[in-house]
Design brief:
By secondary structure, the protein is mostly helical. The protein is built from four helices and no strands.
Length: 117
């Protein structure tokens, strides 16, 4: 496609999603199951290290990061044939909750941006 002509164009999509953790123990248990899955590409030391990180993080962020596949994020744009997903970078961090200050920016019609933020 455009790779041959030297006119590649890339677009970076930023998605922000706030989730409420309803059951931290269940979230951590699910992440630990994923870490210990034989299909997961980790050696024994890495499994132990990741399991300890998930168990020690009482926010649930480390556990949730284990359960979100970057390919799922890329799947958000599968229905568009004129682009090709190249990479996905994912970070999960603790939050104080939904952001009230941006409620007026979410018009649900895709035009709620441009307020000088």
């Amino acid at each position: 496609m455009s790779d041959e002509s030297g006119t590649e164009r890339y677009l970076r999509l930023t998605v922000e999603l706030t989730v409420e953790v309803l059951d931290i123990e269940a979230l951590q248990a699910t992440a630990l199951k994923e870490i210990n899955d034989p299909e997961t590409d980790l050696d024994d030391d890495e499994r132990k290290e990741q399991a300890e990180m998930v168990s020690a993080d009482d926010s649930g962020a480390t556990a949730l990061q284990w359960l979100i596949e970057p390919d799922h994020v890329l799947g958000l744009i599968e229905h568009v044939e004129q682009i090709e997903p190249r990479e996905a970078v994912l970070s999960v961090e603790p939050s104080d909750g939904p952001s009230d200050e941006e409620d007026d920016d979410h018009d649900h019609d895709g035009h709620g941006h441009g307020h000088g933020h």
